Amino acid sequence: MLKKVMIGALVLGAAQLAVVGPAAAATDPSWYLGPTPLGPGEQIYAETRAGAGGCVPEGPVTSPGLAEPIGWTIGGNFGKYGGYGRVVKTPGKYAATLSCTDGRKSTRTFTVTGVPPSSTTKPPKPKPKPQVTVKPAGAPQTGGGFAPMAWDW
Fold it and tell me: What is the DSSP string of 62-86?
């Protein structure tokens, strides 16, 4: 009886692996591309973590919106792959592609605006007026005098 239960469990486990294996390969790998939107020629960052739902990249991140492909120059925990690149100067919405060594491909979109978002004009803040120092005068209770302590003779 115990043998039959163990064999049944092994068969069930093998069936689950057969079903889960191909489905896992079809999932979109986790990765980040940003920030977005960006101004013309600004810096963009890409990152994936192979050990945390990402993948091992097969090559750089590519896109017509990138000045050149983003290479993987940063490593770290959980199979981290990261790198910086620059976007093109032509405004528009672009798709970037990440190819994985397990055959998966994934895209993320980013937007290049006509002007750098950080260069918006804002009115200057008014400078605060300098404070006038007031020297307190009077009894120790008002903070202006000196009161010797009982042990201070």
Answer: B-TTBSS-B---EEETTTEEEEEEE
Helices (H), 79-131: none
Neighbour tally for 30: CB within 10 Å: 14
Q: Which two tokens stand for residue 130?
A: 């300098």
State pLDDT tens for residues 86-106: 999 999 999 999 999 999 999
**pLDDT bucket at 23, cuts 50 / 70 / 90:** very low
Q: How confident is the model at residue 147 (pLDDT cuts 50, 70, 90)?
A: low
In this structure, are residues 28 and 102 in contact, taking their beta carbons and an 8 Å threshold? no
| Distance from the first to the final alpha carbon of the chain | 97
* Strands (DSSP E) found in 90-148: 92-99, 105-112
3-state secondary structure of 87: strand
Global model pTM greater than 0.85: no
